[in-house]
Automatic annotation (TrEMBL):
It holds the Pfam family SAM_MT. This is Protein-L-IsoD(D-D) O-methyltransferase. InterPro entries: 16SrRNA_methylTrfase_J (IPR007536), SAM-dependent_MTases_sf (IPR029063). Keywords: Methyltransferase, Transferase. The keyword Methyltransferase applies. One of its GO terms (molecular function) is rRNA (guanine-N2-)-methyltransferase activity.
Length: 265
């Protein structure tokens, strides 16, 4: 679903209608090149039919919510808070271990999604490191980037980690082709599973918008050129994608349904 098949609006006029929401709607419309529609008292469904669009971005309480026929997508850090707490307590994190993250490293996360993994990565590499996150869908990128930049974190560490993430609306292969050799320490892929592990309104909204294409050998080859240390891919445990793309080291929780394929460079 392209940005052109969407509009942006605000909540209905009332107690939650603020100038901040109006300004956010106007800014988002300009950045995405989509219509900024006055809400009035119309329902989202009425707006969708009137403007013949599949999705509606709503400026609500100073943040963006993407409403589709499958559900609503809005920024939420998910399990990032608990995962950061585990790291602080010395319990570790499967993704951080697979990526081999330490203070000061530079990460390219090629599949931003809802942003929880990027937050944990940012926390792990600290202020001296960096996380660059790519999202191929403009609408998802707008919602999650806005949340990372403006939502209030559960604590200072999360707040700081969120703010350090740099989001680009970009296709991973296109971005990698233009990147310099050894430009990042590690590169991470989390392609959308064909069959979801969990059902929720937010994930359903994400899935209807997400790029469902499998990773290509060319994408992995470019990632190997651009990464200094590791290329990592998240997939279902036992997935044939690991062997197809050349990931011969598998890491992750013993009883987890997901695993991480790791290429040491």
């Amino acid at each position: 679903m392209a940005a052109g098949s969407a509009i942006v609006t605000t909540v209905r006029r009332g107690t939650r209608y603020t100038e901040a929401n109006r300004a956010l709607a106007a800014r988002t419309a300009k950045e995405l090149g989509i219509p900024n529609v006055l809400r009035g008292n119309d329902s989202i469904e009425e707006l969708r039919k009137t403007y013949n669009v599949d999705a509606v971005l709503v400026a609500r309480q100073g943040l963006l919510t993407l409403v589709t026929t499958e559900g609503e997508l809005f920024f939420h850090p998910g399990m990032a808070h608990l995962r950061m707490k585990n790291l602080l307590l010395g319990h570790g994190d499967h993704l951080v271990r697979a990526l081999g993250l330490t203070e000061g490293m530079h990460v390219l996360d090629c599949t931003l999604g809802i942003g929880a993994d990027a937050i944990v990565e940012s926390f792990a590499v600290g202020a001296s490191g960096s996380v660059t996150a790519l999202e191929s869908n403009a609408l998802i990128a707008a919602v999650i980037a806005d949340g990372l930049a403006h939502a209030i974190g559960d604590n200072y560490d999360m707040h700081a980690a969120m703010r350090r993430i740099v989001v680009h609306h970009a296709d991973a292969l296109t971005f990698l082709r233009a990147a310099a050799d050894k430009g990042y320490d590690v590169i991470y892929f989390d392609p959308m599973f064909r069959r979801p592990l969990h059902e929720s309104a937010g994930m359903n909204a994400l899935r209807v918008l997400a790029d469902m294409r499998a990773l290509t050998e060319e994408t992995i080859a470019e990632a190997r050129r651009v990464a200094r240390c590791r290329v990592v891919m998240k997939e279902r445990r036992g997935s044939a994608e690991f062997a197809r793309l050349g990931f011969d080291t598998i890491m992750g929780g013993k009883y987890s349904r997901i695993a991480y394929g790791v290429m040491e460079l």
